[in-house]
Amino acid sequence: MENFKVSNTGTTSLFKNPILEKLTRTNFFFPGVLFLVVGLSSAVYGYFYNYSSALVSIVLFVGGIFFFTLIEYVMHRFVFHFNAVTEKEKEIKYKMHGVHHHYPKDKDRLVMPPVISIGLAVVFFGIFWLVSNKGVYAFWGGFLSGYSLYLIIHYSVHRFKQPKNFLSILWKHHSLHHYRSDDSAFGVSNPMWDYIFRTLPPKRSIKKEELESLPDLDKNIA
Fold first, then answer.
1. pTM of the full structure
2. Mean pLDDT of each 10-residue bin along the chain, 222 residues long
3. Which of 125, 117, 101 is nearest to 46 (CA)?
């Protein structure tokens, strides 16, 4: 993102219309809980109504989670960070995702507005139904649960102190994206696809001494 400096405090308005402005702000807990409950319920529904066996349900559920991580990466890289050329495109990009880079600690803009995420969830259900028919319940359930897991991780990385265990890589990886190279490190729930598609930050940005100097996303929370 360009033309602004990262602010570790504060927020900003995106629309003059109070209704539109309110729609850009979302409490994390609503979508975080909603998609997890719907996802798990969908998988259980598919199993108990004999749409698939227990083993098949588990495989489809895990496959749905795995597929979500790919969609997460693709959307973050090619949609949220699309190459904006015109002033209008830059404005759209800023309102869609740039504002999060400008104010990474604004807790009300750490998740996608439900009006958009619910619509996308319905679209993906339709696509999965066409591909897998009755197997959609377990796969879509895993997909939504993967989204919920992503929301939890993204919120935690921005709001909580970096843990001193294997999960710390998620904090460090996302800090690199925000503070060193926003055209790399697109994975949030995990860095796997960045390894596969070679979009890790430049090696000079991940030297130990530089990594330790990165601002902590959990400090100075707005």
1. 0.88
2. 73 92 92 97 90 88 98 97 94 94 92 94 96 90 98 95 92 91 93 96 58 51 34
3. 125
